[in-house]
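User: Good morning. I'm curious how 6-O-phosphono-beta-D-glucopyranose would be positioned relative to this chain. Could you predict the structure with it bound?
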Amino acid sequence: MTGALSEGIHPAEQSKYHAALFDLDGVIVDTAKYHYLAWKRLATELGFDFSEAQNERLKGVSRTRSLEILLEIGKLNLDEAVRRALAEKKNKWYVEYIQKMDESELLPGARECLVRLREKGVKTALASASKNAPLILRNLNIASLFDAVIDGNKVSKAKPDPEIFILGARELGVSPRDCVVFEDAEAGLQAARTAGMYAVGIGKADVLQSADYVVDGLRNFDVNMLF
Ligand code: BG6
Ligand code: MG
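Assistant: Good morning! Here's the predicted structure, ligand included:
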């Protein structure tokens, strides 16, 4: 283990895995800031404050559930049609922000990690709750680095349900036990473990309790450790 790796269980005992499944937001790109800007704009329009600390509750959560949490914070009870219109409005603003994104917004080491894995013959999939994932992959110019893309349009159950990862393994044609998941949110790590996969947490070990192993960013992940 190098000094750059945060504490966690060293996976030395692990055999080699055949596939890698990646969350998008917080692992490959930092879109959380754009989600925050759009949700904050909506909160302001609705007449209440929305802090960055409160935004933590929205990470890894679906758009619909994010709006529910936001309205809970604003103590607003709105009917279904209004909620749907608000979610659409937030998404319109969010898409305006991410349309301007380019490769410079890839998180350090993300592209290199994907390239190294593919060179080793490891299959790669994106497994993101975001319905905007295809647009983001195009803007970051990394769509060709994934053998499969499972996004919010393909799943009906949100993480921590394992559906998204099970579907990812199926599309790659591998068994869940041969998969490693890279996730920055607890809900995603729980989903990976429930799916029977090895869960690498991207972030801080004290926060990512469900991870089998934690590293502070893909730039410090040595692919030879698990693949
Ligand atoms: C997840 C993000 O990846 O996607 C969440 O972490 C977001 O914050 C969710 O709410 C859904 O994204 P979208 O783009 O479909 O609204
Ligand atoms: Mg994430």
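Residues 80-98 form the longest helix (19 residues). The mean pLDDT is 92.
Let me know if you'd like a different ligand tried.
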